[in-house]
Input
Amino acid sequence: GLFLEAQGGTICLDEIGDISPTLQTKLLSVLQDKEIRPLGQNATVKVDIRIIASTNQDLKRKMENGLFREDLYYRLNVIAIHLPPLRERPEDIPVLAEHFLDKYSRKFSAGKKQFSPQLMSLFMRHHWRGNVRELENVVSRSVLLAQGDLITAEDIQWSFTPSSTDFIGEEQLRLPYKEAKARVLEKFHRDYLSHILTIHEGNVTKAARACGLERQALQQILRRYHVRTGHHRNNGG
Output
């Protein structure tokens, strides 16, 4: 049905690496014969379409492991475009976030909303392991959960669930245990403290309360890891 609707145009196949071997065979047949057999019909129909396929997987490796058809791989791999991870192009984050905000505000009839400066700062520092899809999901939830027209970090702080790879990278894994542990702990403290200060706009008293610490204890930790509260205050007014 989708191929017929795309007749004379373009169809985008998202996450092509996830399709089953059966679907791979059917797709290859369409690409080779340029025709399809609509469901419930005996006759075939010629189709003239352009296919754009996307994936976040290594299709060449899947092909070498027998998980993706070699002939289909080369049929699709005419012009390959590598898009860097979202965390490597932070300049795109505000543009995409605003696009998704407009999209889901309209979809949910939520009225006009905007992100707080602190939340946008959090977006810019997040690793976005799920790339654009993760950003879209976070924004869509924020539209539903926001208490007012201004979406704050507090509205969606639960949406961020750092994976272990955010803290343990290849560099740390090559180090001796004690040195690797020290670096991972330092990164954890910096990220955690920056996150909690962003949510509370640099207010140490509120941040300490949220952490379950005395204000003086939190100040000592901030000094130890050279985290400055002034960088997390809202200077917009």
